[in-house]
Amino acid sequence: xxxxxxxxxxxxxxxxxxxxxxxxxxxxxxxxxxxxxxxxxxxxxxxxxxxxxxxxxxxxxxxxxxxxxxxxxxxxxxxxxxxxxxxxxxxxxxxxxxxxxxxxxxxxxxxxxxxxxxxxxxxxxxxxxxxxxxxxxxxxxxxxxxxxxxxxxxxxxxxxxxxxxxxxxxxxxxxxxxxxxxxxxxxxxxxxxxxxxxxxxxxxxxxxxxxxxxxxxxxxxxxxxxxxxxxxxxxxxxxxxxxxxxxxxxxxxxxxxxxxxxxxxxxxxxxxxxxxxxxxxxxxxxxxxxxxxxxxxxx
Length: 299
What we know:
Layout: E1 2-5, H1 6-11, E2 16-19, E3 31-35, E4 38-41, H2 43-62, E5 67-70, H3 74-86, E6 90-92, H4 104-122, H5 131-148, E7 160-164, H6 170-178, E8 183-187, E9 198-201, H7 207-222, E10 230-233, H8 243-246, H9 266-271, H10 291-294
Helix pairs in contact: 2-7, 3-7, 4-5
């Protein structure tokens, strides 16, 4: 049974939104408070949204349809690929090609071309070609693999989409809406939740938050046949009451932070500290570390 705890959400910085000046008013219903110019997302709403999204993905997978994971920003690329492969589903983590859903018949031709090039490389066809021809075909194969490798075996449009950052993936959102394909998406305080079937309010910039959300959706695929489903632990144990210490490595969000995916590793993720610094924020503009205070309604 998949388990999500409030501690997981807090440690991953899921509750940190963008600067107040960058918000989308349509996200107001998901915002708990504002602290030092930063919006704080209501984790109670996030938990309920996670439950709804988890059940929706399970139903789609149980009906025999596929899930397409979409996240092309550098912070999301590795998590999207890793978790999609773990649950045996498809993914797009480099670039969303226009028409990937609305013009899927043309995309299928490109997929067939990719498979043909891979077969030519294996069956010895390249041995009868010149170096220039081999180089040209190799570059074509590499380009197709980079953009379409994650959906190479996808024969039909997916049953549901999981998207990280609906602002960046606006084309994917528009195509899914046009094709009437349900959308599960992580929506930050600068996103528009309207038109998203299962919006999950949360931080869509920090690696740890993205990884957590992606793992939850992948678990929904794996647990599709499990009647128990998802278990949410909303309370914190006595040993977790010292929020200052637990959150000592979390600071203000960085706007659209660029991460070098090549050098990123699991070890660096565990030690990565300031994933949430805003590009316009200085050291003196940091969030209070007292998360307990953030959720104190009298504060």
